[in-house]
Every structure is written in C-alpha cells, then in structure tokens.
Design a protein that fits this description.
This protein has one domain: Porin (Beta Barrel), CATH 2.40.160. A hairpin with a 4-residue loop joins strand 7 and strand 8. With about 240 residues, it is mainly beta.
Length: about 240
Amino acid sequence: MFKPLAWLTLLLGATCAQAHDEGFHGDVGGMVTGASSMVSGASAQAHALPYIYGDWGRFYGRVDTFGMRVLPMGQGHLELAVRVSTEGFEGRKTAYSALADRASPVPVGLGTFQRTPLGGVFAYLMHDPQSGGQFAELNWAVRFALGSASVFPQLGVQYRSADYVNHLYGVKAAESVATGLSAYRAGASLMPQAAVHVTLPLSGPWSLQLQGRYRWLDRAIHDSPLVHERTQTSGVLALTYALD
C-alpha cells in the first residue's frame, strides 16, 4: 500500500545531503499549545512540544508544518509538506467512554508560501492517511511593528473532506448502539479562521512567541452529536532562541 508519510520521508532523506552544509536560520525552542474542547466531556487539550520556525537549506519548519522546497514557483516555491496535528482524542476521556479512539490526522501533500506586496500567502493541499480524507488550507498573514514587538495578523480557511471529518467526529452504527448517540455521517467542512501571532523580544536572541487562533465550526462538524461547540479557540506560548 502507498504510504504518503513514508514517501515524503524518503524524498526528504534523498536531498538531505544538499542541505548538510547550510546552517539553520530561524527560531528554535519549546512551546505549550492549548485548544478548547469540542467533544462533550473532554477536557481542553494541552501539549508541550518543540518549537521550530525557520529554514535549513531546502527544508523548513513552520511550528506545525514541516517540509521541503522542491521547485521555484511564482514568488515562492512548490513544497512537499506534512502537518502535525493534535486533534485526536481518546474515547474514554469523553462523556462517551465506549467511543473508539480518534488518532490525530497527519496530512501529507503539497504546499507553497508566496510573498506578495500585501503580505504572505500560505496554501496547502494534502491527503491524510489516518482517515483517507483530504485537507486543504489557505492562509494570509501580514507583519507590522508595535514598539519592539512584531505582530502578524492572519486570516484563512480550512477545508476537510467528509472522510477526514468523520474520522474525528462521525458516529458509526456500532458506536451509536454502545453510547446511545445517534449515528452520524458528516459531509465536507469549510472553516474560516482568524489568528494573531506576536513576537516579543526578551534579551539578546531570546524571544517570547504568543499566538491565538479562533475557528468557526460549520454544520458538518457542529451537527455531530459528539460536538458541543460552534467555535474553537487555540493558542501557543513559546520561548525561542534565534539562530542565524
């Protein structure tokens, strides 16, 4: 069976030698991420993870997205990319202990970052091997200075296919019998989102990274009997060190 994540790993490894002599440029450190719960009975999610935002030759890290630039395209590059998600949850930690666990999606596919006079545009088109579904995202960000801080407002939209949504929020017939919930088969989802990222310089190369994100859940998600919210908030707090 074709496994996109293994395919991407092989491609990244094949070009690693080209980047070996090029140092990393960007921010590294540690972060804590958090997101409000969307599933009934589940607590808010929190994760301690490494923070990487920068370039190493062709390779790049963008907090939750990692990949490799393949070809010049427009004002940027065509990229191979993988998104690291923390959306999964354990059934026993919800209000419905008989639910099956939901593994976090790991979408893999193509992306690009384009520089424009009005800011940067990030676009991704991906396949998730966990669900067999598709994921796409279009996001715009602009930078301005506020005193010593750098502020990055962002606007965007995420698309998730029906298989992707059902992997997380669908209710199968067997789960319906076990939990008493109505069976649910979702359609595709389109979610607007807004965010702001702030970089606060501390001392020397040290900085504090703050990010808040707000998503509006469409009917494909909030009509699920598992979901008790119509919006979701998430955030990142990171301490980083700049490497140049």
